[in-house]
Design goal:
Elements lengths: L17 H26 L3 H10 L2 E6 L6 E2 L5 E13 L1 H5 L6 H11 L3 H8 L19 E7 L1 H9 L7 E10 L7 H4 L2 E3 L2 H6 L1 H4 L7 E3 L2 H5 L1 H5 L3 E7 L5 E8 L6 E4 L3 H18 L7 E8 L5 E7 L13 H8 L23 H9 L8 E4 L2 E4 L2 E4 L7 E4 H6 L3 H14 L12 H8 L21 H21 L2 H4 L3 H17 L5 H7 L10 H13 L2 E4 L3 E5 L6 E3 L3 E5 L4 H17 L17 E7 L7 E8 L6 E8 L4 H17 L4 H9 L23 E2 L5 E2 L4
Parallel strand pairs: 2-10
Antiparallel strand pairs: 1-8, 2-3, 3-4, 3-5, 6-7, 8-9, 10-18, 11-12, 11-23, 13-16, 14-15, 17-20, 18-19, 21-22, 22-23, 24-25
Helix pairs in contact: 12-24, 14-16, 14-17, 16-21, 18-20
């Protein structure tokens, strides 16, 4: 029987109190506040962001590449320009949107182009992490390049049969052209595709990259890449949700790249390369003459009038990409490593051309320019004998004469005495290092600052360098000092024993700057290494009164319509750390070398009364190689305009090989031909000495700029 509840009965469980209700209400209000704040944030601060995302669903932005600027010589002649080639492209969305994915169209196109179908299909793929090349690295809204440099007749077939090739087009495309062939190839550089690393590192590429663009990889193409490339245009397309292009919403045209006008004179460049090649050929077969460089500088500005490097190559090999076999050959020793610029990246002992620095160090450190010094055939210093070339002695002579006849023993004594003055093997305090510091003052041991990539700094050794080098090589030397050279001992036991002893000495005492190192340093031998460009820059400074410039290939940047000109001003790097008296003494001594010294044979018959040449020969030895030939010079001696330096690796003595090459370059610049006969003709009252048109009339580098007209045409200067 049911019983009615009484007043004392309670339902089990907790009853929600007033405090709980308040907390629940606060929680609900807080959630509503967070939701409101989030809605406000999405609709107000982030409105523009989401608007762009929404628009992007219907808009596609394309980059329109600009025409790359030309590279011109000082008169306006093209060193690198552009030519148009026909390119066949495919519309990615139209082809992939077909029922068969565009297979039939590509198959028909394969027959017309004579290109394998598989290659066309691979090119149509979009590049990605799991897609191997070839593939399309650009936007799917950009025309996909299927074939380059197509014959006009083939392109015409495609255009005339548009119905048979839907989604396929043929159009003109600008590509790099090298009208001068191999001339100046290392200096000019080349183009290659943009890498992913470059895109991540360079914002200018990320904002202008189309997927098929190329950038400068070497030479001035690399240094002036941004200016030559110009500013890309933009085209905004309206697309539907299927990716089909509906309209062009907006379009900003590209701005062509600027032209680079260089200091280079094409005529002098050609003569320098031809003279270098001929001189190397003449040195063979007695000498290997495996590589060489010739540089012509404007001593007043540091402008590079010519820069030759052999072996060389035709930069046209980079067009359309280079295969691995060709690339490997370009880097091989068998081919002479033609990608390497011997002028800028090659380093060699400078031999006696370095004596201008050693003489300056002596003169600025207490050795009188008015005294005479002994020049015996050989000297014994620190227990070792050192000889002149062919052991010839000259008796007492002035430093002027020591330069003219290239007396080594005078400079050996300078190097040894200064080494002793510094404290020899164990200097107390800070040594003066007068020889090394003077060499650095001449610009040796560090890059010149030229507007080219990958320049070497050379090497000026001293006590600090020797200790650093010892620390870097000590482990290997100690190992060899203990275990020897068994691979050498198999064929030459005596040499292996010598090398083992040498390694042991280097392990134990290799940190010491020894007398023989300082002695060899004084004549540009031993561990001294300089580049031909460094030497040319140093002699240019001697010529112009002591100013060291940063060499420059670029002279000015000019817009494609000629309305804007940006001069590339000369940059002063420093001053030679020598007195005016020492400088004049050097100039006077160098002027006598081609007249009565070691270069007199090369300049026999040269009209020195009209154009006086100042210079110094050099012959440098390297263990295991034949002697290398140097000639460093400038002219005219009384009003210097040009500095010319020639190097022939393993080419013989400086007077025999390098000096005649420099003579040929001077002949070309001033128009001297068959100077011996011309000089004889003048003596008989006949015309002579300048029977050819000089490459640089007036004997001066070109100063004015060529005119670039609004229509893009270029008025070449008439020299």
């Amino acid at each position: 029987m049911l019983r009615a509840p009484d007043d004392d009965f309670e339902v089990p469980g907790r009853r929600l109190g007033r405090a709980g209700l308040v907390m629940a209400q606060v929680l609900v209000l807080a959630l509503f506040a967070v939701l409101a704040a989030r809605l406000w944030y999405l609709q107000i601060p982030m409105w523009e962001h989401y608007r762009e995302l929404a628009v992007a669903n219907h808009h596609q932005q394309l980059i329109v590449p600009a025409t790359r600027g030309q590279i011109l010589d000082a008169t306006g002649r093209p060193l690198v320009n552009n030519r148009t080639e026909l390119v066949v492209s495919g519309d990615y969305h139209e082809l992939t949107g077909m029922e068969d994915g565009g297979a039939k169209v590509l198959a028909d196109l394969s027959e017309v182009l004579d290109v394998p179908l598989e290659e066309l299909q691979q090119r149509m793929r979009l590049c990605g992490p799991e897609v191997s090349r070839p593939c399309w690295p650009g936007s799917p809204y950009q025309p996909v390049t299927l074939a380059e440099d197509v014959e006009p007749s083939v392109a015409l077939q495609i255009m005339e049969r548009a119905d048979a090739f839907p989604g396929i087009s043929a159009q003109a495309h600008a590509v790099r052209e090298y009208p001068q062939g191999e001339h100046g190839s290392q200096m000019l550089g080349y183009l290659q595709p943009v890498t992913q690393e470059e895109l991540e590192a360079r914002e200018d590429l990320r904002t202008q990259f189309t997927g098929i663009d190329q950038v400068g990889r070497d030479g001035v193409e690399a240094v002036y890449d941004a200016q030559l490339r110009g500013t890309a245009g933009k085209r905004v397309l309206g697309v539907n949700n299927h990716g089909e292009v509906m309209e062009v919403i907006s379009e900003t045209p590209p701005e062509p790249g600027m032209h680079l006008v260089t200091h280079v004179d094409l005529g002098v460049q050609k003569v320098a390369e031809e003279a270098l090649a001929e001189g190397m050929a003449n040195a063979r077969p007695r000498y290997k003459a495996d590589s060489g460089a010739a540089i012509v500088l404007d001593v007043r500005t540091g402008g590079v009038v010519a820069m030759a490097s052999l072996p060389t190559y035709d930069p046209a090999i980079w067009r359309g990409g280079i295969d691995q076999e060709t690339f490997d050959r370009m880097l091989s020793e068998e081919a002479g490593e033609p990608l390497l610029s011997r002028a800028v990246q090659g380093t060699y002992p400078p031999g006696s051309t370095f004596k201008v620095s050693s003489l300056s160090a002596a003169a600025e450190n207490g050795y009188s320019l008015r005294s005479t010094y002994a020049c015996p055939g050989s000297v014994t210093l620190a227990g070792q004998s050192y000889s002149n070339y062919e052991g010839q002695g000259q008796g007492p002579l002035t430093l002027h004469r020591a330069i003219v006849v290239s007396c080594n023993t005078v400079f050996y004594n300078f190097g040894y005495q200064m080494w002793k003055e510094d404290g020899g093997l164990h200097p107390e305090g800070e040594p003066k290092e007068a020889m090394a510091n003077m060499a650095r003052g001449f610009g040796f041991g560090s890059p010149t600052g030229i507007d080219l990539p990958y320049e070497t700094g050379g090497r000026i050794p001293d006590r600090e360098w020797k200790r650093t080098f010892w620390q870097e090589t000590r482990e290997n030397n100690c190992y060899r000092g203990q275990h020897g050279y068994p691979e050498v001992a198999e064929t030459d036991p005596s040499r292996a024993a010598y090398l083992k002893l040498l390694a042991y000495e280097q392990c134990v005492e290799g940190f010491e700057w020894r007398a023989n190192e300082a002695i060899n340093f004084s004549i540009g031998q031993g561990d001294v290494l300089v580049s031909p460009l460094q030497l040319a820059n140093a002699y240019a400074a001697i010529a112009n009164g002591g100013t060291l410039y940063e060499p420059r290939i670029g002279k000015a940047l000019v817009s494609a319509d000629g309305t804007r000109v940006q001069p590339i001003e000369p940059v002063v790097r420093g001053k030679l750390p020598i007195s005016d008296e020492t400088l004049r003494y050097l100039q006077d001594a160098l002027t006598a070398v081609p007249k009565e010294g070691t270069a007199r044979g090369a300049f026999a018959g040269f009209p020195q009364d009209r154009v006086s040449v100042a210079g110094k020969t050099g012959s440098a030895d390297v263990e295991g190689r034949q002697v290398s030939s140097w000639f460093a010079s400038y002219a005219p001696a009384d009003d210097p305009q040009f500095a010319i330096v020639v190097l022939v690796s393993q080419g013989g003595t400086g007077g025999m090989t390098a000096a005649p090459i420099a003579r040929a370059i001077y002949d070309g610049i001033y128009g001297f031909t068959n100077a011996d006969a011309a000089a004889a003709g003048e003596a008989e009252g006949e015309e002579g000495a300048t029977s050819a048109k000089p490459l640089l009339p007036g004997g001066k580098p070109t100063e004015e700029l060529p005119t670039i007209r609004p229509d893009g045409s270029i008025d070449v200067l008439d020299r």
